[in-house]
Design a protein that fits this description.
Blueprint lengths: L15 H5 L6 E5 L3 E6 L5 H10 L9 E2 L5 E6 L2 E6 L4 H12 L5 E4 L4 E7 L3 H6 L16 E6 L2 E7 L6 E7 H14 L9
Antiparallel strand pairs: 1-7, 2-5, 2-6, 3-4, 4-5, 7-10, 8-9, 9-10
Length: about 200
């Protein structure tokens, strides 16, 4: 008996053209269907060290992200990380992690369908996000590697600073808020269409 893999759809498939037509100071592209796993593990525990060894990364501390490897680790809470990997079978990664953890206490849950990821870049990113986000994106406050759970235009997002002065960020947003957030981004960029700010 053949088991078919379910087809995954991007919640922003209809938004590719509008997002591509933003002013040159803000580029937005969706990174759809990334593998996303919630890892619950006590920091510094034997299980945490086993995960780090299996992924060849260091799990991040509070409000930070480890973005250097194929599997990114985003801090979500005191004993929770979101592991983000390229699109592909999550079962392989889950299997590796569970084998590494063994009998130690930790949980790994596939939450890939829960969110989509928007990659924003350009010199206007910080200015545009400031219109709807209370987080101070000044590099002295939120340097590269910062990872914050916050609101953007009242939509819950995980914001990861990837470039100096927030010139490159990831926004992870729940699929149910994705179209709303895309609408907000297009609207927030309207004043920059004729010039580049």
């Amino acid at each position: 008996m053949t088991v078919e893999t379910p087809t995954r759809f991007s919640p922003l498939a209809a938004w590719q053209d509008p997002l591509a037509q933003l002013p040159t100071g803000v580029q937005v592209r969706e990174l759809p269907c990334l593998t996303q796993l919630t890892l619950r593990v006590e920091p510094g525990s034997t299980a945490a060290k086993a995960v780090e060894a299996a992924l060849d990364i260091t799990l991040p501390g509070p409000v930070s992200a480890e973005m250097s490897g194929d599997v990114k680790a985003l801090w979500m809470g005191p004993d929770e990380c979101l592991l983000v990997a390229p699109d592909g079978p999550a079962d392989d990664l889950i299997g590796r992690l569970r084998a590494a953890i063994g009998d130690e206490f930790a949980t790994v849950t596939d939450v890939s369908a829960q969110r989509t990821t928007l990659a924003l870049s350009g010199h206007l990113v910080r200015t545009v996000l400031a219109q709807g986000c209370a987080v101070d994106l000044d590099p002295r406050v939120t340097p590269v590697g910062s990872c914050l759970n916050t609101l953007l235009a009242q939509a819950p997002v995980t914001l990861v600073v990837r470039g100096e002065a927030a010139s490159s960020v990831w926004l992870l947003v729940r699929s149910s808020f994705a179209s709303y957030l895309a609408t907000w981004l297009v609207d927030a960029c309207t004043e920059y269409r004729d010039g580049d700010g």
